[in-house]
């Protein structure tokens, strides 16, 4: 295990911050302050040290600071020092010009592809947007689960991108018609290859998460029974060879051309699957559980993935971003969450409006007050 922590964070024109700097010890961090103070904005800044659109799924223009009346977000930057086993790495990201289509990622001041971030930092997060995860459509759950897969297998994101692009192109050909069958064959081959890899990675992560949840046993978080409902993930879970999944998916796509053209969307493939979660003790689907139980079920999944990644030999251990999680938990679960974070030796960032939520973290975490006057480290010893 590589012990990884973010020890310095600098923001320029990011969301509500003109400039801000935080120097951190590597211990868990709790951020307290009133609504709208900028706590989530800080977590979001950290989340940009993974490839993608950050924990709010925002566009690049949205995150650039905008004063009232300004139409466009400014150019912005966030920089971090990551310490791993005593070695420091400097990461930076942002856009150099307002309205830029892509963000630049820098590693030790050199521009690198965003994928390189995963070599230095892995993250798992839980935000209030995920509170309705079990009540939303399958797409939200797939995205949530894919994030967990991605934290363990960074190549998963690339496979999903190839798949989405080929899927869009195939649908354009089918709906614009008449489609060139040779070009369709080529796109379907690409879809089948990327789709089979996605299905395998999802099935592998699901099995590992279920193992982790089962072996961790008695905890104050509800045990979950997980499954992936998609045909391709199920095939992978049953141990099918990847070549067989790929071949079957290619055949299914070729056979579905007319049907997909009529529907205006592809009706089969790993973009259709869902994550099913059952509250094991109650034997009830998560959607039928209370709000607090749902939150605890999701938190348990996130913690299980964090625990797995914390044990991984060859990858940096993860940073946990838990936005407004503490306030949803009763005191016993909150204390258990803090104990787990400490036992896993992870740097977690937690937010809340009241300092008393973090009483049980006194002496073992760093507190930061976030308010209109800026950021201030609290005395938590
Ligand atoms: N691009 C932007 N430019 C300037 N300010 C922004 C921008 N985007 C968001 N904000 C401001 O940031 C503030 C929200 O910050 P944030 O979501 O981090 O608050 P919070 O401390 O997490 O609050 P809560 O406790 O309510 O969740 C809002 O006042 C919002 O107007």
TrEMBL record:
SUPFAM superfamilies in alphabetical order: P-loop containing nucleoside triphosphate hydrolases (SSF52540)
Domain annotation AAA+ ATPase: ranges: 25-375
Keyword Plastid: no
GO MF assignments: ATP binding; single-stranded DNA binding
Keywords attached to this entry: ATP-binding, Cytoplasm, DNA damage, DNA repair, DNA replication, DNA-binding, Nucleotide-binding, SOS response
Binding, ATP: 33-40
The organism's taxonomic lineage, starting at the top: Bacteria, Pseudomonadati, Pseudomonadota, Alphaproteobacteria, Caulobacterales
Protein family per UniProt: Belongs to the RecF family.
One BP annotation, GO: SOS response
Annotated NCBIfam families: recf
Gene3D superfamilies in the cross-refs: P-loop containing nucleotide triphosphate hydrolases, RecF/RecN/SMC, N-terminal domain
Name this polypeptide is given: DNA replication and repair protein RecF
Cross-referenced Pfam families: SMC_N
Record's function text: The RecF protein is involved in DNA metabolism; it is required for DNA replication and normal SOS inducibility. RecF binds preferentially to single-stranded, linear DNA. It also seems to bind ATP.
InterPro entries named among the record's database cross-references: AAA+_ATPase, DNA-binding_RecF, DNA-binding_RecF_CS, P-loop_NTPase, RecF/RecN/SMC_N, RecF_2
GO terms for cellular component: cytoplasm
Compartment(s): Cytoplasm
Keyword Thylakoid: no
Protein source organism: Phenylobacterium hankyongense
């Amino acid at each position: 295990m590589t012990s990884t922590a973010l020890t310095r964070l600098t923001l320029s024109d990011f969301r509500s911050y003109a400039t801000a700097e935080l120097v951190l010890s590597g211990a868990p961090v709790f951020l307290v302050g009133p609504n709208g103070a900028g706590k989530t904005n800080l977590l979001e800044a950290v989340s940009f040290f993974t490839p993608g659109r950050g924990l709010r799924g925002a566009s690049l223009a949205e995150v650039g600071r905008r004063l009232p009346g300004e139409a466009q977000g400014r150019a912005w930057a966030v920089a971090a020092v990551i310490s791993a086993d005593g070695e420091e790495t400097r990461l930076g990201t942002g856009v150099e010009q307002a309205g830029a289509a892509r963000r630049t990622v820098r590693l030790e001041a050199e521009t690198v592809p965003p994928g390189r971030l995963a070599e230095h930092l892995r993250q798992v997060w839980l935000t209030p947007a995920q509170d309705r995860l079990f009540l939303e459509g399958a797409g939200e759950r797939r995205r949530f689960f894919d994030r967990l897969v991605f934290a363990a297998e960074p190549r998963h994101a690339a496979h999903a991108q190839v798949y989405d692009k080929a899927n869009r192109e195939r649908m354009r050909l089918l709906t614009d018609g008449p489609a060139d069958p040779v070009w369709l064959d080529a796109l379907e081959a690409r879809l089948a290859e990327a789709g089979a890899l996605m299905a395998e990675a999802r099935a592998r992560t699901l099995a590992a998460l279920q193992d982790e949840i089962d072996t961790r046993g008695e905890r104050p978080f509800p045990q979950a029974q997980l499954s992936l409902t998609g045909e391709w993930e199920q095939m992978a879970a049953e141990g099918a060879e990847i070549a067989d999944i790929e071949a079957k998916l290619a055949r299914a796509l070729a056979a579905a051309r007319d049907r997909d053209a009529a529907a205006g969307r592809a009706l089969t493939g790993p973009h259709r699957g869902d994550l099913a979660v059952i509250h094991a003790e109650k034997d009830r689907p998560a959607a039928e559980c209370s709000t607090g139980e749902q939150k605890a079920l999701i938190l348990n999944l996130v913690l299980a993935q964090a625990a797995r990644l914390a044990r991984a030999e060859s990858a940096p251990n993860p940073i946990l971003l838990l936005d407004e999680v503490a306030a949803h938990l009763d005191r016993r679960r909150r204390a258990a969450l803090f104990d787990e974070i400490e036992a896993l030796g992870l740097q977690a960032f937690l937010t809340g409006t009241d300092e008393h939520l973090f009483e049980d973290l006194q002496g073992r975490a760093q507190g930061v007050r976030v308010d209109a006057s800026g950021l201030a480290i609290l005395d938590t010893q």
